[in-house]
Amino acid sequence: MPVLNKVIIVTGGGTGVGRETSLAMARLGYHVIVNYSRSREEAEETAREISALGVRAFAVQADVADDAACRAIVAFAVKELGRVDVLVNCAGTTDFIPFQDLDAVTDETWQRLYQVNVVGAFHCARAVREPMLAVGGGTIVNVSSVAAQLGQGSSIPYCCTKAAVDNLTVSLARTLAPHIRVNGVAPGFIEGRWTQGGLGAKYDSIKQAYERTLPLGRVCQPQDIADGIVSLITGSKLVTGQTLTVDAGMMISGFQVKFD
């Protein structure tokens, strides 16, 4: 029987960091499930680009906040591609709310961000456990944020959900060992439409302020974060329960940008 290509599921895989990760893993020979919630055109275009690289790709719609939808993604991957080896939990959401405006933070904001950013990652990890064990093991990477440690970013609920993701990474790494490794990547400021859309007119000035003060002199591109994710998948097999910071030195710079 022919050797099957390994298979990766990337949630939020059609845009930004998810797109770059999907393409990078396809170049390494992985078949790719490109999950999306709303960005159908981008996900389908990403899947077409991956297919042109000589591997298989499917754009699959699902809201990771829905456990049944997550299980359906994994079942689809097993049915169409025969296995699941890697999961990258890249899907996420936020609201841009000034930290001082406590009254603007609603219960709905807390619930939606927690359900997508934290519970969604758990849903997907739980769904891939048995398929990964069936092929001898696998790797999970959760996309977190430096906001988890800095308490600085788009909103207080976002920072808190990313701190919870870091704890989820450790908890799952311990629980799923020794056959499934679980790690995280914590990006700093990422250039792109997601950040630009949230910051609006402040985007350029905040980006330039970071560029002037970051030790490495530039903000992150989606490809920079994808490189970190790929390193955790393809590098040492003795790394688990860790969150790799990819931030151009933001965490050591002592610089804080006000989002209000």
UniProtKB/TrEMBL annotation:
Its EC number is 1.1.1.100. Keywords: Oxidoreductase. Residues 6-193 form the Ketoreductase domain. The keyword Oxidoreductase applies. The keyword Oxidoreductase applies. SUPFAM superfamilies: NAD(P)-binding Rossmann-fold domains. Belongs to the short-chain dehydrogenases/reductases (SDR) family. This is 3-oxoacyl-[acyl-carrier-protein] reductase FabG. It comes from Anatilimnocola aggregata.
